[in-house]
């Protein structure tokens, strides 16, 4: 009987070849042929799974995001007791930053995808799809924190949630550019969380 091929596993292997290229020399000049060579397969075999570079990038990004979500979930589950909203937010935000080689590669693949998405309406729509869901989740955590008395009143908003997401995106870019290192990026994120959670309302008459 012919050997059964696990198509999902093969797609993941191709994605991992793409990641290795992203982590060593970038994706701007990388072709499907380059990825096929890195994966140790023929171009024709690669095109059996991905017809275009955009399809391959989209799958690679989705696979990286799944792995990142698993890492974030593991961090939250490792916390003692019931995690606070602040702890959940910190785990999510740290998972969005390129703090180690694996997450750095994920950020590089994401950057390559987003660069192409700016000029492609279909890719742009897919890139934007997850942002409202993430913003809503962050806003819900902020509302939970406010209900628990852990967040000053008036800060449990979608705007504050979007500022956290935007800060993570900006810090990630600066880590890739070596403006600062992963440790400083996390320190700045912790500073923003402290500013958000620890600021006290002041009396305008004093």
Automatic annotation (TrEMBL):
A molecular function (GO) term: DNA binding
Keyword terms: DNA-binding, Repressor, Transcription, Transcription regulation
Organism: Streptomyces chattanoogensis
Gene3D superfamilies according to UniProt: Tetracycline Repressor, domain 2
Protein name according to UniProt: TetR family transcriptional regulator
SUPFAM superfamilies: Homeodomain-like, Tetracyclin repressor-like, C-terminal domain
HTH tetR-type domain mapped to chain residues: 8-68
UniProt keyword Transmembrane present: no
Pfam families: TetR_C_6, TetR_N
Signal peptide region: none
Database matches in InterPro entries: BetI_C (IPR039538), Homeodomain-like_sf (IPR009057), HTH_TetR (IPR001647), Tet_transcr_reg_TetR-rel_C_sf (IPR036271)
Residue range(s) of DNA binding per entry: 31-50
